[in-house]
Design goal:
heterodimer, A: about 375 residues, D-Maltodextrin-Binding Protein, domain 2, 2 domains, six-stranded mixed β-sheet, three-stranded parallel β-sheet, 10 strands, about 40% helix, globular, B: MetI-like fold, about 0% strand
Chain lengths: ~375, ~300
Amino acid sequence: MPRSLLWSSRRQFLTGSLTALSGTLLSGCGWTLAEVRQDAPKVGDRNELRIYTWSNYIDQVLLEEFIGQTGVRVIADTYDSNDVMLGTFQAGGRGSIYSIVYPSDYAVAKMIDLKLLAELDKSRIVGLENILAKFQNSQYDPGNRFHVPISWGTTGLIYNSEKLDPPPDDWDYLWQHQDKLSRRMTLLSEPREVMGASLRSLGFSYNATDPGELKQAYARLAELKPAIATFTTDAWRDQLLAGDLWLAMGYSIDAVLVAQENPKLKYVVPKSGSSLWVDTLVIPANAPNPEAAYAWINYMLQPAVASQVTERLLFATPNAAAYDQLSTQLRDDETLFPPDSVIERCENLEPLPQKAEEMIEKYWTQLTSG
Amino acid sequence: MSSQVSTSADKPRTALVGRLSSWLEPLALLAPAGVWLGLLLVIPVLLIFQLSLVPGIRPGQVVNPSGIENYLQIVQEPIYLRVVLRSLMFALGTTLICLVLGFPVAYLIALVVPKQWRNLLLVGFVLPLWTSSLLRSYAWITILRPTGVLNTFLKAVGLPAIDILNRPPAVFIGMSYSLLPYMVLILYASLEKLDRRLLEAAADLGANPFQAFWRVTVPQSLPGIAAGCLLVFITGLGDFIDPELLGGASSMTMARLIYNQFLGVTRNWGFGSALSMVIILAVSLAIALLLKYGDRSSANL
């Protein structure tokens, strides 16, 4: 991919786009959309670390303890979807202020592909050996050269165990009990996850690219659609707690939170398999403060820190030493830490070829415009 | 002789300088806004237009305008037309609801309520705009859900419950609630200027109150009605929070479709730009119509 124009300031961007515009109009030769900056990292403030993360991985205690240990002040910005985060980086500019980002598995692969990430210098990282073996060598980044896993979980069904008897155990349940669940269930607002669920219910892979398989999966969803209340990633929580919804497709870390408020809400990973996601720590290629970034990674890898933040914010740590320090109640929570037999049934979401992505996007638009 | 020549030559020069300085002042006054509009409106729109001519462009690819496939895609796929129609339906319906609800309120505040209460009432009406629109949508979920505030109330007074959350009526409710203050403010501004002597004259000439309202008040406030409707329509066309949160499983609108093209799975910025251009054109057309017919109707008065 040619990367001819490098924007380093807004003014340069504007003059650049002007010249590019007149250039294209005059000669027909192209400029490059949404340039990724490739220039040398500029030296940032040594005592400031900007991180870009999901809102549920950060709290004030964590930031204050980090200042106490290292003297580095952390400014955290949050995003609510990998696609938004990727958009920030691909559109250039604002992406270059961050030294630590928390992408999920397939987003890591995309960022590696786009050469947005710096390869980690493992000699500067302490405590990597505590990461569970199953997370040491990932499909999306072989050899974990660019990332450190920080949290993981599954996608599944959160349901009201008082209302649903027998309880759901597989994706098929949705179709079998379509009448009973009519307008009482929600699916995620994530095209890949929803298509994946339908694909798995048909016995195909979450990462299927075959047009025939995708078509079947869409047809099956279209059949289910009249019964679906809405597609939402988090607006289901209150309604599930209030009893207006009986079942929601969601992530395990969200399931833990609602189950704390109402123990009758249970979580299940469907029998035919689901997606296993991993959120990670990475350092962008042009991070302004790589020193502090390594300090942050090492800090998050300390077993005591990792276990305390896991207790506070309730996510599943891939750090074995931290797991051992957790309370028994949390360790035995199968929603957060499902047994290996469940994990074996799950797949990582992988980046798809453009053609399959286009099909999924089109099916999604069809599905949601009814 | 030479002095004569110079004076005759001076005349057009001073005239030229005079003309220049008469241009210079407005130019200097307009320059900041002009530069602002040029850099932040005209150029971006041109860039979007250029992108819309590249079939299927994604971030990181070379922009090389080659054709109108992106536009053809909108027209050829019935699915996208349905999305466009749904957006128009939501925006038009909301405009209508806001007009019907907003006109009596604006009339009341401008003409009936004692003067000292007016500002307080107006502020009260605008107050909801100070909260986040996301928050307002979530509030409507709490109100409209099957066991929510509305249905609890209906049950208490012995009426049957209604299930409208995740259906189009919920979107109309949410959007109208968000946009009503704009309509009321604009209608208030136009009704406040109403010439009451004309109403008295109408009464003198034997018109009953309804006739006076329909033939005097409404025509006088037509420019305000047009401006209010336009503002609500344009804002409604771009709203994606209310359809997304309240509309249920079949609530894809233009704004959400564009969002998905830029930040969703495929990241097809070319197609997203083409959809954006369609919205920009539709809105520009609406404004052009308003300028043309809005003026004429006020001239008719």
